[in-house]
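Protocol step 4 of 6: structure prediction from sequence.
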Amino acid sequence: MAYINPMRKLLQEKQAIVGATVLMREPVVTEFLAQYYDYIWLDYEHSWMDKSTLVDHMIAARAGGNTPVVIRVPSEFPAPLKAILDMGPAGIVFPMISTVEQAKTAVAACTYAPRGVRGYYPQRVCFSYDGTAGDYHSRPEEYVYKILQIESKQGVENIEEILQLPGVDCIAVGPADMSCSIGQMLKMDDPELVALLERLAAAVTKAGIPLMVPAGDPTGVAWWKQRGARIFFAGSDIGFILGGAKSYAEQMRKWMNG
């Protein structure tokens, strides 16, 4: 049977999916979270991971539940992708995509010549699924779910052209940086920001491309669902630890002093 990218397969099987963000180096974190989430988002952009840590997390995700991993790479182009692609993540998240040229560069980095610029020397990725390299060699693009993250006003203004590019599998939203791009840092109810998010969601859903969004509460989930979002990312390892530790410590003090 031909390989189907696990992110694409999840969307075929479920109405909506949710992933957790991992920033810590310890792979056991991913092993635990992989038991509960549909996919894991490894944040190589903002964390202190190195490339050897990434593959450890991918192994942990498989151990925890055969859970697909997407890796957000640094926004500087060209991103250091060759070794990461050859590890075999389910997808790559390209942050800070604002122009058509940046989008083309991202897709090309995941694609072999003549349509792209990816260097050929796959190793782990060829043999980590079914023991054969044949299917990968005939359909390599199916193994890389290409996610472009729009995080600026400029990106929204160019979204219609970006969506026309072949090879774009998913559009992710970065509302925090988008708020910064219009001079309204983290003012998530700013009318201009809301209008930009509305325009982005409408264009993506009209194009029939999956929309990936951050939403961690009922109001946010409902807002994005009404606008066609099907892929959510909510919560991070650091957030879970800090939130749980704070809540439990407060409860303990209440019990001790009660």
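Step 5 (inspection) to follow. Residues 75 and 95 are 5 Å apart (CA to CA).
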